[in-house]
């Protein structure tokens, strides 16, 4: 209702003015009540909207969990993930809408009520007061007696002053009324219009979002129709199969068990048998037995690792047992023990006896046909990628990263919760993870764990070998050494995420379950690692000698006069026999590091060129203090990845500097040890690829001086500065040219050319030259899988013009 109070009318103070004022005051009072109610309703709407959003978020999280549970069905997983993302966007739009309602309705109208209506009420109080004073002045003036002049003058003066004050206040009051009426319209309309525009934006955003989603929904609708048809067809087929099987005669079902030596899964025969325990009570337990890889094994549950009854069937015999009370029994006897078993029927007993006899015959035949054939038992138990052995290399061709990594003992289940069939890995820890634990590892940050997919990501050869050198079993022996002692419960598959997350943080961030070594243990460990290099060198004496090179080789530790001293690399160039002796007490597949260490023996020096200063022979000096950093330092040289992982777990700084050894770092010592995998492990754990020693030489300098082509390739890929010069002002390229190492010269020049091309293409260039990428990829694969191809120094002829 629009009410305008005339300024002229207010000065008259007529009954019309008073009636208008009374009407305005009643309208303002009612307006205040309605606005208060609207603000309260808005607050209730916002609170209800927040509760709706919270419930909606829980629903969306339920959809995401269902998508994660459906990882084996790509259509369901991708669709539910997309739907969850869209619904999450709608929740965000709702949140924006309620924020706008907060600003436009609640805040704006509350401000209008508190500020403008309060000013109106204050003006009304002043008006009422001055009206009463005017009325009193008029009455006093009228009552003044005519014969008392001083009273007449006093009443007249008071009335004049009161009227003057009344006119001033009533004009202000009328102004306040008119301003309030005008502002009332603008404030209410502005508030509601802002709120309606917020709704318009909300529905536009929702429409645009679901317009993008509509093609996927239509596609899924078409697929759903086909799925309904296929489901109906499958149901009919299953009902028919059910009816057919139901009509079969199962009385002779025992004959279905047959021996098949050529089975695809390697299991020649399997089935349930009763097994007599070797305890004093001679109890009988039903177990699932199988004959595979010339072994007799059994399992209690499918997820359990098979228990081997007979390791080699060639050494055992099988016979009937008729001298015990139970029926259908037979016995498998080996040189060390015998196992009594019972079948469910006579036919099954005969079938098992025949299967064992056939397996014995097959094992002898296979052994006689090929004396060099790899033992099946070792092929299933090993997890190392021995790049130095050709049979091993051939057996791994065509296998995916998943198959290679999961073949390592303990890697078939998640390292942290035991979930079988993991599909993710932490590359700096060397462990496999399920999808839930991989997400928790990502949240820790890359300084704790770098997560990569075993199925979706591309795996470099050196990184794949690193994964196969460590594994869940090795890392858990370090990070869970005191778990049982502390009474901590390890998570199981299906446990709540917050429990698994708390355990993982305690394990890797707080390192609560690590067993800290005593000072004496640490000292013994460091001394043992420092001596392992000599044992490696001595182990080469039992291997076939290599053909002599055409020129004398300068090895680390050689003197100028020609009296060569055996160095660390002399024991690296062959196979894994010495490394197995060195790491007999280490729970890891370290044969990989030893084969990898053979990738590049030291280069010969041309007779006409002064040789670069080689790295000194590894000599152990009693340090001032034994620390995890010193353990990492010598373990890097000894190529012992488990000891390196243990040192890092105990707090070793990956870029620790040995001030007693020319400020060398663990990465420089890994170059000395000649292992590509050791260098990769340190780089994955944030080692500085450009850190220099007191001679101004970084890892790239040392790898070039020793002729380790694979390490040079690795460091260049990881951003090593090839322009850095040592105190003799020699860059790696100058050293490689003086040593006439064509492979390293090629790599360094290609890297420099690629860097110049990328600078010319602009700051946003990422790809580089394709030739550079192809050549570096070839060198990477050779260094990891066929290091002998990099030993080209034997063709070098210093007399060639």
TrEMBL record:
Residues 379-388 have a biased composition (Low complexity). GAP activity stimulated by phosphatidylinositol 4,5-bisphosphate (PIP2) and phosphatidic acid. It is found in: Cell membrane; Endosome membrane. GO terms for cellular component: endosome membrane; plasma membrane. InterPro entries: ACAP1/2/3-like, AH/BAR_dom_sf, Ankyrin_rpt, Ankyrin_rpt-contain_sf, ARFGAP/RecO, ArfGAP_dom, ArfGAP_dom_sf, BAR_dom. Residues 559-577, 792-801 have a biased composition (Polar residues). Residues 399-521 form the Arf-GAP domain. It is a peripheral membrane protein. GTPase-activating protein for the ADP ribosylation factor family. The BAR domain mediates homodimerization, it can neither bind membrane nor impart curvature, but instead requires the neighboring PH domain to achieve these functions. PH domain binds phospholipids including phosphatidic acid, phosphatidylinositol 3-phosphate, phosphatidylinositol 3,5-bisphosphate (PIP2) and phosphatidylinositol 3,4,5-trisphosphate (PIP3). May mediate protein binding to PIP2 or PIP3 containing membranes. This is Arf-GAP with coiled-coil, ANK repeat and PH domain-containing protein.
């Amino acid at each position: 209702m629009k009410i305008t109070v005339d300024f002229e009318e207010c000065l008259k103070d007529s009954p019309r003015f008073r009636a208008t004022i009374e009407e305005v005051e009643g309208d303002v009072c009612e307006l205040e009540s309605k606005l208060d109610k609207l603000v309260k309703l808005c607050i209730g709407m916002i609170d209800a909207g927040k509760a709706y959003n919270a419930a909606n978020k829980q629903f969306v999280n339920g959809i995401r969990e269902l998508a994660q549970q459906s990882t084996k069905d790509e259509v369901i997983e991708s669709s539910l993930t997309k739907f969850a993302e869209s619904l999450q966007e709608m929740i965000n739009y709702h949140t924006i809408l309620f924020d706008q309602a907060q600003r436009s309705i609640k805040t704006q109208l509350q401000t209008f009520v508190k500020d403008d209506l309060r000013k109106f009420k204050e003006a009304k109080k002043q008006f009422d007061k001055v009206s009463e004073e005017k009325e009193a002045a008029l009455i006093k003036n009228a009552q003044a007696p005519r014969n008392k002049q001083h009273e007449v003058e006093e009443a007249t003066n008071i009335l004049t002053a009161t009227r003057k004050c009344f006119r001033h206040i009533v004009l202000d009051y009328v102004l306040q009324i008119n301003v309030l009426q005008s502002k009332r319209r603008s404030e209410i309309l502005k508030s509601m219009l802002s709120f309606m525009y917020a709704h318009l934006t909300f529905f536009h955003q929702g429409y645009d979002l679901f317009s993008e989603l509509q093609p996927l929904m239509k596609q899924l609708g078409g697929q759903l129709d086909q799925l309904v048809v296929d489901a109906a067809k499958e149901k009919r087929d299953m009902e028919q199969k059910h009816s057919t099987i139901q009509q079969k005669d199962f009385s002779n079902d025992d004959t279905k068990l047959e021996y098949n030596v050529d089975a695809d899964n390697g299991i020649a025969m399997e089935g349930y048998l009763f097994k007599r325990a070797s305890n004093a009570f001679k109890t009988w337990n039903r177990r699932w037995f199988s004959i595979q890889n010339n072994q007799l094994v059994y399992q209690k549950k499918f997820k359990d690792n098979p228990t081997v009854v007979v390791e080699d069937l060639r050494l055992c015999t099988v016979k009937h047992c008729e001298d015990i009370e139970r029926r259908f029994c037979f016995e498998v006897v080996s040189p060390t023990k015998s196992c009594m078993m019972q079948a469910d029927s006579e036919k099954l007993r005969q079938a098992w006896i025949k299967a064992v006899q056939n397996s014995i015959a097959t094992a002898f035949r296979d052994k006689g046909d090929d004396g060099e054939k790899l033992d099946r038992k070792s092929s299933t138990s090993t997890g190392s990628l021995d790049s130095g052995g050709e049979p091993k290399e051939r057996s791994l061709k065509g296998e995916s990263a998943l198959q290679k990594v999961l073949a390592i003992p303990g890697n078939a289940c998640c390292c942290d919760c035991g979930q079988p069939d993991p599909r993710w890995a932490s590359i700096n820890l060397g462990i496999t993870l399920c999808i839930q634990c991989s997400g928790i590892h990502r949240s820790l940050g890359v300084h704790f764990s770098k997560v990569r997919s075993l199925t979706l990501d591309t795996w470099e050869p050196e990184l794949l070998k690193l994964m196969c050198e460590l594994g869940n079993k090795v890392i858990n022996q370090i990070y869970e050494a005191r778990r049982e002692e502390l009474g901590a419960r390890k998570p199981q598959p299906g446990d709540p995420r917050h429990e698994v997350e708390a355990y993982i943080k305690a394990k890797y961030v707080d390192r609560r379950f690590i067993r800290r070594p005593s000072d004496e243990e640490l000292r013994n460990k460091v001394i043992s690692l420092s001596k392992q290099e000599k044992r490696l060198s001595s182990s080469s004496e039992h291997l076939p000698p290599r053909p002599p090179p055409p020129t004398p080789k300068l090895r680390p530790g050689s003197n100028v006069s020609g009296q060569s001293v055996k160095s660390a690399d002399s024991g690296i160039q062959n196979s894994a026999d010495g490394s197995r002796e060195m790491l007999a007490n280490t729970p890891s597949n370290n044969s990989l590091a030893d084969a990898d260490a053979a990738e590049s023996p030291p280069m010969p020096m041309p007779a006409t060129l002064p040789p670069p200063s080689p790295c000194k022979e590894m000599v152990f000096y009693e340090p001032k203090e034994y620390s995890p950093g010193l353990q990492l330092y010598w373990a890097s040289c000894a190529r012992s990845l488990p000891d390196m992982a243990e040192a890092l777990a105990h707090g070793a700084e990956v870029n620790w500097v040995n001030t007693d050894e020319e400020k060398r770092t663990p990465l420089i010592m890994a170059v000395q040890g000649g292992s590509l995998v050791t260098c990769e492990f340190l780089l994955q754990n944030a080692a500085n690829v450009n850190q220099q020693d007191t001679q101004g030489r970084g890892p790239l300098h040392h790898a070039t001086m020793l002729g380790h082509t694979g390490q040079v390739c690795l460091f260049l890929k990881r951003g090593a500065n090839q322009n850095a010069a040592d105190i003799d002002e020699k860059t790696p390229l100058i050293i490689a040219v003086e040593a006439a190492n064509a492979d390293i010269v090629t790599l360094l020049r290609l890297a420099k050319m690629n860097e110049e091309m990328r600078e010319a293409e602009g700051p946003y260039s990422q790809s580089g030259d394709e030739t550079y990428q192809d050549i570096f990829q070839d060198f990477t694969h050779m260094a990891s899988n066929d290091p002998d191809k990099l030993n080209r120094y034997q063709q070098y002829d210093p007399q060639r013009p």
